[in-house]
Amino acid sequence: MKLIYLHGFASGPMSGKAQFFRRRLAESGLELRIPDLSEGNFEGLTLSSQLQVVERAAGAGEDIRLMGSSMGGYLAALYAARHPEVSRLVLMAPAFGFARRWPLSLGAEKTAEWRRTGFLPVYHYAEKKDSRVGYALLEDGQQYEDYPEVRQPALIFHGRQDDVVPCRYSEEFATLHSGVTLRIMESGHELINVLEEMWLEARPFLVGP
Questions:
Q1: How far apart are the first and last CA of the chain?
Q2: pLDDT-based confidence at 209, cuts 50/70/90?
Q3: 124, burial (CB in 10 Å: exposed 0-12, middle 13-18, buried 19+)
Q4: Nearest-CA neighbor of 99 among 150, 63, 46?
Q5: How many beta carbons lie within 10 A of that of residue 129, not counting itself?
Q6: Largest CA distance in the chain
Q7: Letter string b/e over residues 178-194, b meaning 16 or more CB atoms within 10 A of that residue's CB
Q8: What is the pTM assigned to this prediction?
Q9: What is the pLDDT of residue 127?
Q10: Which of 7, 90, 132, 176 gives 20 to 30 Å between its CA and that of 123?
């Protein structure tokens, strides 16, 4: 069994959630691998490049169990839909419909500016500084489905007050997939205030009692 955590956009392996679950699993003698999905090239980030990082971290022919937050949750679902060796998923505020949602949230003018200049200014939370990401992220993302055809059991946590990825996206995903358990939490996008609550349900689902 190989456990892998996929961090969110403009985040990294040292994110609070990633390290919380790493510590908790370590207490049970289990290793949680947390790859850097941008591999030091945030400006050139795409969904395809991140999926390649996941593939290298997963290796071949093993029982893979994925955790993912926000964009990492969407990536976990995309990867699982294409890799039957993934056996279970725990997704936190997964960013379903990524390529469709971003232009809507940015607005037409800002999206056009991103396309024209080639880069979108963003704050990189892991590096704690202003950065930018290339338009290739959106262009590449348009080839991927909003709701991956996940056949594996999945446990999803989503905040009722999430104003980044509204919980209706996870609700729609759950209606389309019979193996999904959806928990709507009294929280926002980060889910930081419900870490313990999520852990108590995620651990037995992910690795057994």
A1: 15
A2: low
A3: middle
A4: 46
A5: 8
A6: 52
A7: eebebeebebbbbbeeb
A8: 0.97
A9: 87
A10: 90
